[in-house]
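Many introductory courses stop at the sequence. We go one step further.
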Amino acid sequence: MEPIFAVALVIAGAAAGLASGMLGVGGGFIMVPVQIWALTSSGVEPTLAIRISFGTALAVALPTAVNGALGHHRRGAVVPRAALLLGVAGFVGAFFGGAVAAVAPGEILRVAFGLVVIAAAVRMAASPDTKSSGGGGEDEVDGGYGGYGDGRGGGLSRSDAVYLLLGLPVGFISGLVGIGGGLIMVPVLSMAMGFGIHRAVGTSSAAIILTSSGGVLSYLYHGLAVPDLPPFSLGYVNLLMAALLAGASIPMAWAGVRAAHRLPADRLRTVFSLVMIYIGLEMMGAFEILQLPI
């Protein structure tokens, strides 16, 4: 691998780790574009590069999410039962999402990635802030009893069935476009379930652990017999790229957690939304079409 690509991956990993801890997302929306650029610039066929980028990003999101979730848990910002139910359903959904991505055309995957990121950003930006008393200054969910309650502040009840039903499509999209699921999960928890933004971020970080695992297994399995994979690949997961990304993202996740609990909720939501919109437009090629050098 060329040194310039290695440096770019380390920087992307650091940014992804910061986003994971601060925003409760897997960081794939940062890592995927950089990986695609590095792979295609090295001569890898574009569709193959996209699948490898998705699989590798999910592999990196897994340990990064563990670090971020532990930090949020220590601050009382994780609802354990909600995270477990969302994560278990997300695991199943992500496996099937990865299976679809293994046969879908590359351009469709790029557009799907961009649309998912932008849609989640718009919904998060448009949602009102939901605060009440409780741990970390935000919604105390039934005294910490895992997310049951009357759904105050949100339109959906906090029941096992609702969490499982939400986890399946979130997991499927996660596996399909190589993201940990936080891009969708945080807005859903914040708006539909009435979680405050910090509690939504913490619970999402914990759920991503299982959701990412399902996607990684799918990309490993479906890529095992694929020819022309770059060196150090195990299925659609490139171990060298994963090491470079994870080496920077894991320690930066702790910095992201500290930043999340120092930023006001409205500022955190703004950072979340703006970064997502930019990445989504970039992946869809919008700036290239408009001939904008950004």
